[in-house]
Write a structure and sequence with these properties.
Layout lengths: L1 H9 L5 H5 L3 H8 L6 H17 L3 H9 L5 H5 L3 H16 L8 H15 L5
Length: 123
């Protein structure tokens, strides 16, 4: 995603908040030069929205994206037990035992913050 980061910087987009605010047309325009992949820009925007709206760390947002949660609303609607199981498997495959596993209290905190951010009541 290095090319995407470079393209965003050249366009003056240097924060998660700025990236989170871009719409589809703006991402298409950024990708039109061929310097960046539109699909990767869309994934980065999803990560940015989890970072800026929910307040997650970038690596937490990346883990959720790889686990299939692409938006604050998706996180707010997630089943905590299912998400924990899904993320635990993914994290073990990606990092082995190098990183402490995600636990239920952390997942519940993420869901609660996403629910507050998106105006939903938690599960």
């Amino acid at each position: 995603m290095w090319r995407e980061q470079q393209r965003l910087r050249r366009a003056g987009i240097e924060s998660w908040d700025a990236l989170a605010e871009l719409d589809d047309a703006q991402l298409r325009q950024l990708a039109a030069s061929g310097e960046a992949s539109e699909a990767r820009l869309i994934r980065l925007r999803g990560q940015a929205r989890l970072v800026s709206v929910v307040g997650l760390a970038p690596e937490e947002a990346a883990l959720l994206l790889h686990g299939g949660v692409a938006s604050p609303a998706g996180l707010a609607a997630a089943d905590p037990q299912q998400l924990l199981l899904q993320l635990g498997r993914l994290q073990r495959r990606l990092t082995g035992g190098a990183v402490p596993p995600v636990d239920l209290p952390l997942v519940l905190t993420w869901i609660r913050r996403a629910s507050q951010a998106s105006g939903r009541s938690p599960n």
